[in-house]
Amino acid sequence: MTDKFDKVPGAPSPVTSPVSKAPSVAPEAIRAIPVRHYGRWLSGIVVFALLAALVYAFSQGNIQWQAVRDKVFDETVLAGAGRTLLISVLAMLLGVALGVLLAVMRLSKNPVTSWVAWLYIWFFRGTPVYVQLLLWFNLALIFPILNIPFIYKDEMTDVMTPFMCALLGLGLNEAAYMAEICRAGIQSVDEGQTEASHALGMTQAKTMRRVVLPQALRVIIPPTGNEFINMLKTSSLVYAVTYNELLRSTSQIGSTSYAVMEMLFVASIWYIVMTSVFSVGQYYLERRYARGSLRSLPPTPWQRVRANLASFSNRRTGGASA
Questions:
Q1: Do residues 88 and 232 make contact, with C-beta atoms less than 8 angstroms apart?
Q2: CB 111, CB 151: distance < 8 Å
Q3: What whole-number distance in Å separates Cα of residue 263 and Cα of residue 267?
Q4: Neighbours of 161 (CB within 10 A)
Q5: DSSP annotation string for 70-101
Q6: 115 backbone dihedrals φ, ψ, rounded to 5°
Q7: Gap between the Cα atoms of 311 and 315, Å rounded
Q8: CB burial of residue 77 (10 Å; 0-12, 13-18, 19+)
Q9: Alpha carbon distance 221, 175 (integer Å)
Q10: How many other C-beta atoms lie within 10 A of the C-beta of residue 72?
């Protein structure tokens, strides 16, 4: 949107002055008046009023805020938050490793390998994570004994601990989504890169490891960061397999202290803290890998704040001049 320009009345116009013989007159400084955005102010007031009403409603509810403050750093809660972080990291590592393998299998010219990868992705994307967790948790109903000839034999109930059920349920499900992300990254690399590598005598595996995957990381890493943040919240579903993560820890405290809503607030606080920290990391990770495709990187939030403060300061001192 263009800005309005205000000129001082009576000032000589440089356009009407003679061009050839009259003495040149210095152009009058133009004072730019920013366009008034009344709609933005109105919408901001409406949003502020709604937030104030929401805060007032919570303040009037039957909630013991002192219990929230007392339990937010409780030892049991911190242990649950640590286990949430642990299972999220391990499940994500399993998902990334298996996802890269599945993506390569899916792009293979071998029809059997490609079909197996497609079948895996189809099954795990087609069933809810909650159902997969329950399947692993009740696997002993189908296989009472885990028997790997000459290697390992034990009862399935002893093998499928809550931690193992959570790791397999989350990690194997994540691998299906990571496979599609990795496949998109690999296909984003120009085919000429592969042809040039083959012309230099590289094998298919070496071309994939040395040429294609390093370039595909620019596309793969940003959505992977997003998947990890999503994993932090999805890990709350392992409550169903009795893994003592953050939500289960807070729920146990709430059931004994009758502070159910208060402990849900405590769990929400820790989920927000963890996702906020990793969201910052994801932002700078995306910004770093955007250097390969952008001529100039977008400003960081701190740079935007400084730019807005500088603009506000210029307006208070008389507006921008052109």
A1: yes
A2: no
A3: 6
A4: 14
A5: HHTT-HHHHHHHHHHHHHHHHHHHHHHHHHHH
A6: -70, -40
A7: 6
A8: buried
A9: 14
A10: 18
Angstrom distance (rounded) from CA 73 to CA 32? 53
CB-neighbour burial class of residue 308 (10 A; exposed 0-12, middle 13-18, buried 19+): exposed
How many whole angstroms separate alpha carbon 181 and alpha carbon 37? 41
Residue/partner pairs of 311-318 with CB below 8 Å, 24 or more apart: 315/34, 318/31
Query: Looking at residue 321, what DSSP letter applies?
Result: B
pLDDT of residue 321: 44
| Total residue count of the chain as it appears in this document | 322
State how far the alpha carbon of 262 is from the alpha carbons of 61, 68, 74, 82, in Å: 11, 5, 13, 20
pTM for the model: 0.75
| Ordered mean pLDDT values, 10 residues apiece, the chain (322 residues) | 46 49 71 82 94 89 85 92 94 94 90 94 93 92 87 86 93 94 89 85 84 83 87 90 90 87 92 91 78 68 76 61 42
Query: HSE of 37 in the Cβ direction (CA atoms, 13 Å)?
Result: 9
Q: Could you tell me the end-to-end alpha-carbon distance of the chain, in angstroms, rounded to an integer?
A: 16
Candidates 151, 181, 156; CA nearest to 168 is 156
